[in-house]
Amino acid sequence: MKTLFAERRQLLLADLRVDEIPKLRRLVEQTTEMTMTKEQIADFIHEVVAAGCDPVAVGDDCWLVGDADLPPDECLAIQPTLDEIGRRYGDRDHLHFEIIDHLHSIGRVFAIDTQHKQSIN
């Protein structure tokens, strides 16, 4: 993971103007190299729910945090909390399907209306 982070940083630096480098340096310093572990998935989902979102699996290959379902002002207000949760747990892309499996296991699944889907086709 460190190698990938270093490669991304080098690519970004190569395309920057000299006056942008201090800004990028601050951004890199603020970025953690943490990655979420499989053991942290339940706690992560619990915190997202506690923040006011409704995370759900959509089928077997997608999941949603559930903030878009909130009224616009609540959705906007919750973003700093979600950002903080994301920073503490770190990158979770590598756990995409494990998160989906966890959401299924606790009954957080979006039910797709198959009758409506068939009538559209």
Question: If you had to describe this structure to a student in words, what would you say it looks like?
Answer:
By secondary structure, the chain is mainly alpha-helical. It folds into 2 domains: 1-31; 36-120, no CATH class. It is built from 6 helices and 3 strands, in the order H-H-H-E-E-H-H-E-H. The longest helix has 18 residues, at 72-89. It is globular, with a radius of gyration of 18 Å. The model has no long low-confidence stretch (mean pLDDT 82).
The major β-sheet equals: 3 strands, mixed
DSSP strand count: 3
Helix/strand/pairing category: mainly alpha
Order of helices and strands: HHHEEHHEH
- Note poorly predicted spans: none
Measured as a percent range, the helix fraction is 55-70%
Distance between the termini: 43 Å
SSE topology sketch:
Layout lengths: L1 H13 L6 H10 L10 H10 L5 E3 L3 E3 L7 H18 L6 H10 L3 E2 L3 H7 L1
Parallel strand pairs: 1-3
Antiparallel strand pairs: 1-2
In short:
The chain is built from 6 helices and 3 strands. It has helices spanning 2-14, 21-30, 41-50, 72-89, 96-105, 114-120; strands spanning 56-58, 62-64, 109-110.
List its traits.
121 residues; mainly alpha; 2 domains; three-stranded mixed beta sheet; 6 helices; globular
